[in-house]
Amino acid sequence: MSHTEIETFDSVWDAIADTPAEAANLKLRSELMEQIDAIVTERGWTQREAAARCGVTQPRMNDLLRGRISRFSLDALVNIAAALGLCVHVQPDAA
Predict the structure, then answer these.
(1) Can you list the domains of the chain with their CATH numbers?
(2) Contact yes or no for 30/13 (Cβ under 8 A)
(3) Distance CA 67, CA 30 (A)
(4) Tens of pLDDT, residues 69-88
């Protein structure tokens, strides 16, 4: 019988990213997307309304709300968050 070694990761982002920096970027993008989605849902906006308020097209808002993370840079998400009045900041990791 062969012995299979199981590799473990701190987060899903660490598992799929090639570098710690890439994992951090993916994590931040994911968190911003979740916050933007929460605001859109909380305010009961349609995708068209949300897109207009964020200065993006409706198909772009659809991509965001469906979690298509690869289609958004951190910069683009910060701009969308700012359009919604979110204050984006970075803090030290608690680990």
Answers:
(1) 18-83 (1.10.260.40)
(2) yes
(3) 8
(4) 999 999 999 999 999 998 88
